[in-house]
Design brief:
alpha+beta, Arc Repressor Mutant, subunit A, three-stranded antiparallel beta sheet, 17 helices
């Protein structure tokens, strides 16, 4: 998703509220590593409109790329989507008034592939739970990419929620097995569970993510009955941690971006990437333009392509269309800017993977979709990605 993003679908979600209530969401059955990554990217893509839109869309090739599939491997994508639709999420929690709430829902209410687009939806009840920041935190996709084990990613997802409290609290072993998706009789033995699941997963989480885990067990007699994980920030990878956005949301630039029509996630992403001063310059530039139909898209182009900078006296204009090729490139740029941040990142990386010449790659890195050395390749790429898009 994220960044989910951001942040995830499975496991116990125990976050203290004002009343110190405990919320839990867990899933039945097993999710493969690819299915877990898929669920996270789908959630990240949908998050801004999770409770306001009845359905969500993402380019199927973009989705495959973000998950690590071959971009044309739709059979694997179909199988993974089917698995998410067949997997049940269950929650048992207290609401804000202290009333007990139990519910059950499939992870996806439906998914379909048509015309190169993946369309999907969550049940309203599950979407409400996933969107609640007190219950759920989006997972950083840069961290997710580092995982090679589904058990390690599952452990990370369930532990990261408690990073601010420093401990997951005690989980009965039967709950822990459900969170990790292991229901084989082989793992009824704690010795086997520890050797095959816990130790390798703890090692990978501590090596690959922004947290370090230390497991502790509780016994009744000689038998282990409960487990918890102490959580510390990984000093080597803490930079990958997700900013909760509170500082950015408190600033005037964030408020101006939201007033302009930028989503919460996009506003925070731009602030983190460009800084408030640069965005303030571009906002002033956009405000001086007339006839702008999409201020957010125009601002995105200004940030990406460098026009409207303060050092230009605030008077620099976007490069004028001097030919049909420039006009087509401009339409490509606008088409790319209209996609979600997740899709835009995947589009750029997918196109870069097609460039073998170092000079052409460097030119694209510098100029993006306005790259003069890659005009024909850019047109061919977008003709395939969006046949009605950049053509004149």
């Amino acid at each position: 998703m994220g960044e989910l993003d951001r942040e995830r679908l499975t496991g116990a979600l125990r976050r203290p509220s004002v009343k110190k209530n405990v919320a839990a969401i867990h899933v039945s059955g097993k999710l493969t590593l690819l299915q877990r990554k898929l669920s996270n990217v789908l959630l990240l893509n949908a998050y801004d409109t999770l409770i306001t839109a009845p359905k969500h869309e993402i380019d199927a090739r973009t989705l495959c790329l973000m998950i690590g599939y071959n971009s044309n491997d739709f059979d694997t994508l179909k199988a993974s989507l089917r698995g998410l639709a067949e997997t049940v999420a269950e929650w048992d929690m207290l609401d804000e008034r202290g009333r007990q709430e139990w519910g059950v829902s499939s992870l996806l209410s439906y998914a379909k592939l048509k015309g190169g687009i993946c369309e999907y939806a969550y049940s309203p009840a599950l979407a409400e739970k996933l969107h609640d920041p007190k219950v759920f935190a989006l997972i950083n996709l840069d961290i997710q990419k580092r995982f090679t084990s589904g058990h390690a990613l599952a452990l990370y997802e369930n532990c990261y929620r408690f990073v601010r409290t420093g401990s997951t609290g005690w989980w009965p072993l039967d709950l822990f097995r459900r969170l990790m998706g292991v229901d084989s009789a082989y793992y009824e033995s704690f010795k086997q569970l520890n050797a095959k699941i816990i130790k390798p997963a703890v090692e990978e989480v501590s090596r690959s993510s922004n947290i370090v885990l230390t497991p502790e067990t509780r016994r009744r007699g000689r038998a282990v009955t409960d487990i918890r994980f102490l959580i510390e920030e990984n000093p080597q990878l803490a930079i990958l941690d997700i900013d909760d956005g509170m500082a950015a949301r408190a600033g005037p630039v964030y408020a101006r971006l939201r007033d302009l029509g930028a989503s919460d996630r996009l506003a925070r992403q731009w602030i983190a990437q460009h800084g408030e001063e640069a965005i303030s310059d571009r906002l002033a530039y956009v405000a001086r333009q007339s006839g702008v139909r999409s201020p957010v898209r125009y601002l995105g182009a200004a940030l990406r392509d460098g026009f409207g900078r303060e050092e230009d006296g605030g008077t620099a204009e976007a490069p004028p269309p001097r030919s049909e090729r420039v006009e087509r490139l401009t339409r490509v740029r606008d088409l790319a800017a209209a996609r979600t941040p997740t899709q835009r990142d995947a589009d750029r990386r997918l196109f870069l993977s097609t460039l073998r010449d170092a000079g052409r790659r460097a030119d694209f890195e510098r100029h993006g979709w306005m790259s003069p050395l890659n005009v024909d390749a850019i047109f061919a790429f977008w003709d395939e990605m969006a046949p009605q898009g950049p053509q004149g």
